[in-house]
Amino acid sequence: MPGHWSFDELKRHVTNGEIDTVLACFVDMQGRLIGKRFHATYFVESAHDETHGCNYLLANDIDMEPVPGYKAASWKQGYGDFIIKPDLSTIRHIPWLEKCALVLCDILDHHHHEDLAHSPRSILKRQLARLKERGYLAYFASELEFYLFDETYETARGKHWKGMNTASPYIQDYVIQMTTKEDAVMRAIRNGLFDAGIPVENSKGEWGPGQEEINVRYAEALEMADRHVIMKNGCKEIATQMGKAITFMAKYDYSLAGSSSHVHNSLWSADGKTPLFYDKKAEHTMSPLMRQWVAGQLKYADDFTYFLAPYINSYKRFQAGTFAPTKNVWSLDNRTAGFRLCGEGTKGIRIECRIGGADLNPYLAFAGLIASGLAGIDEKLELGKPFQGDAYGGARLREIPKTLRDATETLSRSKMLKAALGEDVVEHYVHTAKWEQFEYDRRVTDWELHRGFERY
Questions:
Q1: Do residues 82 and 116 lie in contact, with contact meaning Cβ atoms separated by under 8 Å?
Q2: Are 86 and 103 in contact (CB under 8 A)?
Q3: What pLDDT is attached to residue 2?
Q4: Strands 92-93 and 211-216
Q5: Which candidate, 277, 201, 248, places its Cα nearest to that of 356?
Q6: How far apart are CA 56 and CA 70, in angstroms?
Q7: Model confidence at 57: pLDDT above 70
Q8: What pLDDT, on a 0 to 100 scale, did the predictor assign at position 171?
Q9: Do the beta carbons of residue 216 and residue 201 sit within 8 Å?
Q10: What pLDDT is stored for residue 361 in this prediction?
Q11: Which of 19, 94, 145, 294 can bridge 259 by disulfide, Cβ–Cβ 3.0-4.6 Å?
Q12: Using 50, 70 and 90 to split pLDDT, how confident is the model at 14?
């Protein structure tokens, strides 16, 4: 399978005329690829060392609007530069774009050339360094769900995102005959991602009309986050080229299933060979280390819910009877719970966090899961009994925060995350969340007009 290219391999492809464009990309707070298209010759001769960008790119909203009030960047400070530093270990071919390669980049401070603390990739790298100090390696896998439309983004916008035609008119969960009809797009996505060095395992229909799921092989946490953002970007680009549209909104339609990003995670020895969560003699084959890790994620789930659900829309996915969780409990292979044990009795034993939506930023989500897991280990937390039954109706179970406002408040108070990520980092993302809430609160929605134009 094609994988990462070395810098020497890239230079060879450029010299041979096989590559003429290099995308140098970093990931913004919204989980998007942001960067520059370099002429490949210039990149291999010079820009592979570093390039620069305006620091407002990590202090803006999804509309690219500069947001006032950040410590890190502002009009008062003049919105200066930061360094965009290519990570040459991440070079890969992008087969769905002509003669194109991509490299992911880290963001460094313009003055002292250290990782910018509030950059999503830097936030995850800091947590991975904490794992490494203890001799741990984290394997992660994130599943992605999305809706595929027989629309272009232009026609969807022209319809004001109402009455859009999904790729299938029916729910098609696992149904081969139905998904065959849209497999021209999904096959292009599977093969395109695979040829870009992302080991796709499968795609399938999901629990909504035109809803899809794509799964890739697990990897070390940073590599998995890198795959995740390239995968989302690639799905949209490939669909666009084929006259289709995709949405990763957590809940694009009130009446339909939401789109999730379930995150599987486990700890292994530093060489990646020995599973640290597996104990064949223990209850449910969960090692003491795993029980502490899961207990930490449960205890601090409210603290990092914002990293799993970063928008107003994210919280509209948490509805009973929709396969999206509503309770912060753990279970044995139970899809009604926020956390589900998978792989019991095998070396692949892991915990699946089901809270996150397809709109999450994987670097932030993974960092929150790692920080809380490590807190569980440090505090030697005891894991309670797994929940059994229907968690949607379970009495006195702890609810997942119901709104962005609730999740922002718990994030702002989190002593654990302030210690693990840094107070300035937490403050940066609290400010981001508050701006998102402010922008929503002052807007007039279609629902309000429909409900009140005549009747108020």
A1: yes
A2: yes
A3: 66
A4: unpaired
A5: 248
A6: 10
A7: yes
A8: 86
A9: yes
A10: 98
A11: 145
A12: very high
